[in-house]
Amino acid sequence: MHHDTPVHHDTPVQHDTLGYDVEAVRAGFPALADGRAWLDGAAGTQVPDSVIDAVTGVYRSGLGNQGAAFAVSARLGELVGQARRAVADLVGASDPDTVVFGPSMTALTYRFAGALSAGWRPGDEIVVTELDHEANHWPWVQAARRVGAVVRVAPLRLSSGTLPAESVTGLLTDRTRLVAVTAASNLLATMPDVASITVAARQVGALSYVDGAHHCPHAVVDLPAMGADFYVSSAYKWYGPHLAAVVARPGVLDGLAVDNLRPVRGPGPVPFELGTNPFPALAGVAAAVEHLAAPDGEPAAGDAGGRRARLVRARTAALAHERRLGAELVAGLRTIPGVELLPGADADPATRTPTATFRLAGTSPASLAAVLDRAGVNVWHGHAYAWATAGALGIRDDDGAVRASVNHYNHAGDVERLLTAVSRYAGSEHSSGYAAGREPS
Ligand SMILES: Cc1ncc(COP(=O)(O)O)c(C=O)c1O
Hints:
The chain is α/β, with parallel strands linked by helices. The protein is 37% helix and 13% strand. Bound molecules: pyridoxal-5'-phosphate.
């Protein structure tokens, strides 16, 4: 089928009822000035000036280490506490000393897999899922194998791209020690009912470790309501620097033993952290949370209730914006001949992130991503490290899929540009070009 005119994607952006001004938000992000459509936030978002300034400000105003007698040292120590407080506010936790920082979600998960598995015995059981990113799957499997624990894998429902709670809870027994589950799939975008899973896990005496890497940027996180014993996310997915945090349920950290140096003492998060703190990145984390509380630089009207209340208001408005664009993205992709959305696209927008993952008949995802690159659109392609998910779908060894993800700085023009480029290419001679092994044009 040939059609040179792009299928219609000129739906005007409606004005946000919650007063979300996306152009004001965009103005704070210097990287967006290159004019490309940045639809790759699921792999890492851009950072606003406020975060860049916070990071560079630490370098500019003097470095040292915590514990010295001079003023800079005290200030650096305060930064650590401020970053813990900020992350606690972001997820609705009350105690900043439940926040553990680490270099990445993967590094932290290996750290916690080591700490938790120290208490497992042969015959104990753990549950991981097919919906999870490899970083919330394989570290647990490796740890279980080392101690002779049994690994149970909760299956994905392939037709809908979802992980029903019963898929996990049906595997729980009185030997289950841990449930590792994602709060949102970074490939299929679906969000399981984590609260039901954590409640069921606790009933059998198991701990829950919830991956919020793709969830946190697209949710108003309420950790007490979610009930997770551990919730992990990476600040570089929510407009911050490359640093990650685990937030634990109050009291849970203190029951765990981890390797650290002799002078390092608990209680609280410090024994879980290794070496000197990354002070500039921690300042960036606190600034990223402030950004989320006021993405256009203006605190939401009425500052009542402190930062947590500002976060809830501002995030609610930003998520409504993202969700609408995400729905336009999915709806537009559906109209393009040859586009095959991965399962999960049909899920209620309230139970999925604004991320669309798709393939185009006759074109490899890598080729399509290259076409999009030439059209000025940044997307991801491949399995996105959702190794079990891509395996279950049968696309892991077939170049995965193209993933386009919406973040709060994206505007309708970004989505339109992607849809126009895909539909133009779908209507061109691409199929024969790909089959002949030529570079797509
Ligand atoms: C859902 C999910 N979990 C975990 C990770 C790993 O995060 P990190 O790069 O911080 O190790 C990612 C990164 O893409 C992710 O999307």
